[in-house]
Amino acid sequence: MSRSVLMLPGDGIGPEIVAEAEKVLKKVNEQFELGLQFDHGLVGGAAIDETGEPLPGKTLDRAEKSDAILLGAVGGPKWDKLEMAKRPEKGLLGLRSNLKLFANLRPAILYPQLASASSLKPEVVSGLDIMIVRELTGGIYFGQPRGVRKLEGGERQGYNTYVYSESEIRRIGRVAFEAAQQRSGKLCSVDKANVLEVTVLWREIMDDLAKEYPDVELSHMYVDNAAMQLVRAPKQFDVIVTGNMFGDILSDEAAMLTGSIGMLPSASLNSEKQGMYEPCHGSAPDIAGQGIANPLATILSGAMMLRYSLGEEKAAEAIEAAVSKVLDQGLRTADIMSEGAKQVSTREMGDAVLAAL
Ligand SMILES: NC(=O)C1=CN([C@@H]2O[C@H](COP(=O)(O)OP(=O)(O)OC[C@H]3O[C@@H](n4cnc5c(N)ncnc54)[C@H](O)[C@@H]3O)[C@@H](O)[C@H]2O)C=CC1
Ligand SMILES: CC(C)CC(=O)C(=O)O
Ligand SMILES: [Mg+2]
């Protein structure tokens, strides 16, 4: 059976890291006879430069027809002066909303080899394995109305709207409760229910759902405390469920517990388990073109793709084992470099994973 994978490299370091993930995916495709067909498309700034739009119709059409998508990252200073609706980031948000990819899974796992690269002391993070379940197609990133308006007197006012409907909360809640059931049975819902009505509703729905999952222990935490607890005692968390913006911020924070944002993969799924897979980081314009970006988050996103959308658990595990082996060999990109290790480029890291497979 042939299945199609759409590669969307995007901008900045996107093409560099996606090239490494593609090598790795093509190798497991051969080794495990997966029958994957690879196609390529434009999104973000690269698409704006070529077609004038961050999400060309052709890309969306191919994305809708593909079994899974691997995306690098979008955005960069070249396009930052464009009005919001025309920026590269709209291409990514458009893919997420058009494909209804509401469930964003961001596992923050510390590879033991990287304990000294973590921002926290090894004893605080050893064995760290957190799953952040972030709602991805609602909340303040999508709420209407939004914009900048002129007030009486001429002063301008920027505004966005934080909205969640009951059904949006319920469907992401179910994903999180089910994830907790398959893990330790502990779920922490993160909100700001002491200030924001939308998250009072969020909390109410989570409490309601908890009645259907008696084997899951649900707790609630305000987002400011959660941000603090993540760096104080991160191992108190197993599954965290939260809204779009809080999840965006907390997952970058959690990334540093694993050594680098260059280590954090993600899966964005819809109800049909069609998925887009991408590293949690952005296009890193400050290091783009230097061949020093860490490709492991993208390679590990490829493993998540095999697991969640293509049902190829063995191939996914093979990639994860190869990454672990490469770290055992002491190979490190600059962001996870430590004393006694050997620094390698983006391409050398990809080649090492390939050789370890
Ligand atoms: N999913 C996406 O496409 C995302 C896109 N962005 C966009 O990316 C652009 C840059 O945003 P920033 O806030 O600078 O966030 P960023 O995640 O691109 O970079 C933050 C810092 O992390 C480093 N970094 C990121 N990925 C790395 C990797 N693989 N290896 C080594 N170091 C890495 C960068 O060098 C930088 O110092 C913006 O245009 C932003 O809108 C930001 C986040 C996600
Ligand atoms: C365009 C942004 C919402 C992307 C981002 O920061 C993310 O998804 O982590
Ligand atoms: Mg982010």
UniProtKB/TrEMBL annotation:
Substrate binds at residues 96, 106, 134, 224. Its cofactor is Mn(2+); Mg(2+). Binds 1 Mg(2+) or Mn(2+) ion per subunit. Residues 4-353 form the Isopropylmalate dehydrogenase-like domain. It catalyses: (2R,3S)-3-isopropylmalate + NAD(+) = 4-methyl-2-oxopentanoate + CO2 + NADH. Pathway: Amino-acid biosynthesis; L-leucine biosynthesis; L-leucine from 3-methyl-2-oxobutanoate: step 3/4. Pfam families: Iso_dh (PF00180). The record marks 141, 192 as: Important for catalysis. Keywords: Amino-acid biosynthesis, Branched-chain amino acid biosynthesis, Cytoplasm, Leucine biosynthesis, Magnesium, Manganese, Metal-binding, NAD, Oxidoreductase. Mg(2+) binds at residues 224, 248, 252. The keyword Magnesium applies. NAD(+) binds at residues 76-89, 282-294. It is an enzyme of class 1 (oxidoreductase). It comes from the Bacteria. It is found in: Cytoplasm. Coiled coil: none annotated. Its EC number is 1.1.1.85. SUPFAM superfamilies: Isocitrate/Isopropylmalate dehydrogenase-like. Homodimer. Belongs to the isocitrate and isopropylmalate dehydrogenases family. LeuB type 1 subfamily. HAMAP family: LeuB_type1. Catalyzes the oxidation of 3-carboxy-2-hydroxy-4-methylpentanoate (3-isopropylmalate) to 3-carboxy-4-methyl-2-oxopentanoate. The product decarboxylates to 4-methyl-2 oxopentanoate. This is 3-isopropylmalate dehydrogenase.
